Amino acid sequence: MTGGSFGATFTMINRCDYVVWPGILANAGSSRLDSTGFELPPGGTRSFQAPPGWSGRFWGRTGCFFDGITGQGSCATGDCGSNQVECNGAGANPPATLAEFTVGSGSNSGLQDFYDVSLVDGYNLPMIVEASGGSGSCSSTGCVTDLNRMCPNELRTGDGKACKSACEAFGNPEYCCSGAYGTPAACRPSVYSEIFKTACPKSYSYAYDDATSTFTCSGADYTITFCPSTTSQKSSRDSSSPATPGTTDEPPLATGTVDGSGSQDNLPAWLPNFVIGGSSNTISNSGLHFTPVASAATFLMLYILQL
């Protein structure tokens, strides 16, 4: 059966050289899939059938241990707090790389699928999403760069196993797009979201990063790959355009724990300021000051080495 007739088939593949424990959360009003959490060994795959109109998210948990007798345990990153392999309706504790979907009703319905890979809740492992058998732009998206290697020290967590978002690290409304910053006009990219965006230009880097981060397809099935191969990495950097807000039949997905550009070959405008020492700005939170100059310069060096 094709995704166009019966919603969509989601296939998860583990290309990491370590075990990943995927988690699945269906949004309110959507049915639970066959599992909410399971073990996926290196090279392993598992598929799930989602009905038309299904909405939810997928992520990978790492560094997990579950007792062979009681079944109880936890994960170093992406843990859902259920104390079990199954997440049972609980979402990922940040930081975690998220793949988010809203499934249409097939290619004959005129309704599109919406999908994205979000770093709004931070990052824990590389992931890409690829569509197959659908119609429309159907671009691949995701984050294939190891952000843990270039994570600024102030965002680093879990002995370098994950990278927090600035919202999670500092709690500033400016970073969280909350309070007075709760609109697209008021909430703008930060130094930290620009680091994520430069490394992973097709992923959500902050809550209102819709224009270059939400993608559409009709009647497709989807493959979610953890630690994608070189071939998949090349695919994720293609030139297909994402959905443009206001031009589709449905709004983009709400991303991350808050409401709700660029090419990998082009460095963002703020980086030269740090390199040449042209900026002396610091970032303030509740009287604490964080100076991102050293972190941004380190990121730039690592970024250039990967080109």
Q: What would CATH call the architecture?
A: Sandwich
Shape label: globular
Distance between the termini: 41 Å
Percentage of β-strand residues: 15-25%
Structure in words:
The protein is an alpha+beta fold and 307 residues long. The chain has one domain: Sandwich (Thaumatin). The chain contains six helices and 16 strands. The chain has helices at 166-170, 173-176, 191-199, 230-235, 271-276, 293-306; strands at 8-14, 21-26, 45-50, 55-61, 65-66, 73-74, 98-102, 113-118, 127-132, 141-143, 156-157, 162-163, 215-217, 221-226, 283-285, 288-290. The strands form five sheets. Strands 3-1-14-9-10 form a five-stranded mixed sheet. It has a five-stranded antiparallel sheet with strand order 2-4-7-8-13, with no helix packed on it. The chain has a two-stranded antiparallel ribbon with strand order 5-6. It is globular, with a radius of gyration of 19 Å. The model is unreliable at 230-241 and 244-307 (pLDDT under 50). Residues 229-241 have a biased composition (Low complexity). It comes from Fraxinus pennsylvanica. It holds the Pfam family Thaumatin. Residues 229-262 are annotated as: Disordered. InterPro entries: Osmotin/thaumatin-like_sf (IPR037176), Thaumatin (IPR001938).
Summary keywords:
16 strands, Thaumatin, alpha+beta, 6 helices, 307 residues, globular, 22% strand, five-stranded antiparallel beta sheet
Could you give a quick summary of the protein structure above?
The protein has 307 residues and is of the alpha+beta class. The chain has six helices and 16 strands.
Secondary structure layout plus pairing:
Layout: E1 8-14, E2 21-26, E3 45-50, E4 55-61, E5 65-66, E6 73-74, E7 98-102, E8 113-118, E9 127-132, E10 141-143, E11 156-157, E12 162-163, H1 166-170, H2 173-176, H3 191-199, E13 215-217, E14 221-226, H4 230-235, H5 271-276, E15 283-285, E16 288-290, H6 293-306
Parallel strand pairs: 1-14
Antiparallel strand pairs: 1-3, 2-4, 4-7, 5-6, 7-8, 8-13, 9-10, 9-14, 11-12, 15-16
